[in-house]
Design brief:
192 residues, mainly beta, Porin, 1 helix, 9 strands, elongated, signal, OMP/PagP_B-barrel, Outer membrane protein beta-barrel domain-containing protein
Length: 192
């Protein structure tokens, strides 16, 4: 756990260090942002043999029209999904037969982010925030023709740190650290 906190702090320091302090933020009250990204680094501990595609996530933020202190507050929601699986066929001396296990995780949550004007420029947007919601986990195991399924629902909460680099006034790349179905996300943001 200490290592993850250190990594989050290092990433936040890098994002802050790369931004040029200037009180001319790219965002303004009333803006909407849609983030579409992929995530890496499982937030859940499964055996090391599990494989899967990167997680996908979509989030929405609406910037509140009134400034709050030295920055802007945005509120919205997030949906993330990831599926991983493990398969074995044959005889390894202990296990004989064919099995396949899979886990899928879907997160549906709300989030709030704070965008510091002192850290933002025309090209950079640095933010921190919190998100909370529910994680729906589905487990499926097949063992020589027998199938076992189970479903779990978990509450989750997370602190997030992120940044955007604007290519134009409406299109940016983003990177984010925080807990949902992965620890890191990168992707594209659309502002309208």
């Amino acid at each position: 756990m200490k290592m993850n906190v250190k990594r989050l702090a290092l990433a936040a320091a890098l994002i802050v260090g790369l931004s040029t302090p200037k009180a001319n933020a790219q965002l303004k009250g009333g803006d909407n942002l849609v983030n579409v990204g992929i995530g890496f680094g499982s937030a859940y501990s499964y055996a090391s043999g599990y494989k899967g595609f990167p997680a996908v996530s979509v989030s929405f933020e609406r910037v509140i029209p009134k400034e709050l202190g030295p920055g802007l507050l945005a509120v919205g929601g997030i949906v993330s999904y990831r599926k991983i699986s493990d398969k074995f066929e044959g005889n390894n001396g202990e296990v004989y037969g064919t099995y396949k296990n899979s886990y899928s995780n879907t997160v549906i949550g709300i989030r709030g982010t704070y965008h510091w004007e002192q850290l933002n420029t025309e090209k950079y947007d640095v933010y921190g925030g919190v998100q909370t919601g529910l994680r729906f986990e589905n487990y499926k195991s097949k063992w020589d023709g027998d199938t076992y399924k189970d479903k779990y629902t978990h509450f989750y909460g997370s602190i997030i740190v992120g940044g955007r680099y604007f290519f134009s006034s409406n299109l940016s790349a983003f990177a984010e650290l925080g807990y949902d179905v992965t620890w890191t996300k990168v992707g594209i943001s659309f502002k309208f």
